[in-house]
Hints:
By secondary structure, this protein is of the alpha+beta class.
Amino acid sequence: MLGDSISRKLSGFSLIELMIVIMIMAVALAIAAPSFRSIIESNRLRTETNKLVSAYGAAKSEAIKRNTSVSICPTLNGTDCDGTLDAGWMMHVGNDPNSPGDILRVSEGVSPGFTLRTAAGAAVTESIRYNPDGSVSNGGTVLVCPTDNDVSKALGVTVDTVGLPRVRQGVGGWVCLP
């Protein structure tokens, strides 16, 4: 008799108990899913921004190391400075976009759906040049616009005159256009 009561207690969950647990988990998942999507989008935007910050940091480092000018320019084919920055960019020695020197690095640009824009909303077609001391003469801000072009979520990469890239979010006056 004592063995019979112990085996009933160790027999496991009933079907009703299992169904209740599954329903509770389904409700919790339905509540959490939308916020999880926004976290994923935010991380994707941050990843695209970090690509650009990394390129600017590498260009500054190369300019100082080589004691010469290093530029980052938009490229379509990886050999000429042309096109827009969101299609791809190239880091090269020298400051003449019409005849780039040694090509140091080529990037494919941003992932589909994301765009890079000037603060006014135009496509980025200008090069940025790092001087041998790591400073820049033509700094500015490049916006990394999210897939929905919501400017309040956009991140701006600003390169100041000493050549340091900084990331800022949602500054008034920015425009994200597709």
